[in-house]
Amino acid sequence: MLRRRQPDPTASREPTDDAAIDWRLCGQIAQTHGRTFAFASRVLPYDRRRAVHATYAFCRIADDIADRSSDPVLAARALDDWERQLDEPVHPVAVAFAATRRQYGVSTNAARDLLTGVRMDLAPRRYATWDDLRRYCYHVAGTVGLMVAPILGCRDDGALPRAVDLGIAMQLTNILRDVAEDAGRGRLYLPLDDLAAFGCDPEAIVRGQPNGEFAALLAFEIARARRLYAAAQRGIPALSPAGQLTALAASRLYAAILNAIEAMDYDVFGGRAYLPLSRKLGAMPGVTAAFVRLSWASSPRGNEP
Hints:
Elements: H1 23-33, H2 35-40, H3 46-68, H4 72-84, H5 92-104, H6 108-119, H7 130-151, H8 160-177, H9 179-184, H10 192-197, H11 202-206, H12 214-233, H13 241-263, H14 277-298
Helix pairs in contact: 1-3, 3-5, 3-6, 3-7, 6-7, 7-8, 8-12, 8-13, 12-13, 13-14
């Protein structure tokens, strides 16, 4: 039996005038910066879709604070100010996110964990092992899975680790897609022990001249991401029907970026892997078919011998 999720006692309980919330701004941020994320949310009812947009917008503003500042000290102060918006929301996005947390029981602690992860990007750092990188991915993306799960109608706390898996899979996909862009900023997220195993020099990658078995390294990391997507799918039946479609769409569309990297022969320095709208639309029949199979398998009739 599914265990009903209880409201998060740390969620904001300040009264919020819905008319004063700029939901449109949240939607604009999601549409501009998280196109795949926004596309996948289109099947949600209006209230839940705008809640997903508010959650994304809150996280995106935090990310932009870290990425757009050339002064880590000033960025750290700005992130502290943004975190205070969790307790005393004034910014339109923070007010919308507070309303979202109150309505759906979204974890404020997960939002604070996300800000911890964003702060990890204020100074260049390397990740020695996959466990180290996974911890970072949890903070910057697994937490998003935790925040979005109740909005998607999650009815079972036991499924939350699978929401974390999906966030981590998507973040690892971002890392693989953005190796060149990150290198241009002097950043490298791939685990150092994996680089060593494939004979790749970290500094050569940062210079944009990867050596060793770089393609094999990317293939290894792609396989890891796909295992995370597969693990995440086990939690999808705990969501509402619209939430299941949204999660399936997000996972399938993001996983397709891995296919695009393979189609480029792993030449992530030669171009950026992405999915045009036509390919996103083309993927939707497969998402719908997966949803039907999942629904059938989880129904009493589908479990009959």
